[in-house]
C-alpha cells in the first residue's frame, strides 16, 4: 500500500519505463513515487482544486494534470519540482493527456476540448461541444481525439482542427473511461450501466460486451501485452478479463469503496489500484 495522500486519489499512472508512479488527488497535489523503494520522489503543488487526472508523456519526460480549479499543469518529473499552468477553462478540467507521438496535449472540461503544443505549451485549437465530456483518448496514429460523454456517446475529433469526425451511441448511460489496447486494434469503454464494451475503431457497433460488474464501472485498462483487461467499479470490485474470450478470470476486492483508477506496470506483473479512501494498492 502506498500512503501519504490526504485526499481521495482520482488517477494513477505508471511512467513508460515503469520506474515511477504518479497519482492525482483531491488534496490538490500530484505525487510521484519511486517504485523500487515505494517512497515519494516529488510532490507537485500549485493547483487550488482537486486534481482529477494525471498522464505521462510517451518518453516519460513530461506529466500533465487536470484539475477542478479550471486549470491544467505540466512538469518534467525528472528535473522539475513545480507545475507550470498551461490553460484556464471556464469550469473544471476533467481530462488531460498526451498524444502517442508526444507532440500534443489535449485537455477537456465538460463542454470544451483544447489542444496544445507539448513543446511550446501554446494553445493551438479549442472546440465547444453540446455534450458533457468525461474522458479523452488519442487514436494510435495521432489523427483523432476520442471523447466519452455523460450522454453515452463516443465522439471523435480531428486533431488538426478539432472538428467533429464521428458520433457513436455507445450506451444510454455515462461513458466514464475510454482506453485503447496496446496494439491499437480495439478500444474499451467503461460505463455507468455496469458494463465494458470493446470496439473496433471506425465501427458503429461493439465487438464484445463484458458484463459482470454489479455497480457503475469507473475505470478500465489493458495489460501491456493486451491480453488482459482490468476494470473497477463504485462498489470496490476489480475484475480481470480475458480480452479475446470476453470472460472473467479473477475478482479482486480490498474494500467496499469506489475504485477510481487502475494501471498495469509496463514490465512487471503488477496492477496498481486507487480507491476513494486515500490509498493506493499494489
From TrEMBL:
Swiss-Prot/TrEMBL WD repeat ranges: 2-43, 44-71, 168-200, 210-251
Keyword match Repeat: yes
Keywords: Repeat, WD repeat
Gene3D superfamilies: YVTN repeat-like/Quinoprotein amine dehydrogenase (2.130.10.10)
UniProt key word Protease: no
InterPro entries cross-referenced by the UniProt entry: WD40/YVTN_repeat-like_dom_sf, WD40_PAC1, WD40_repeat_CS, WD40_repeat_dom_sf, WD40_rpt
Pfam families xrefs: WD40
Name of this chain's protein: WD40-repeat-containing domain protein
Domain of life: Eukaryota
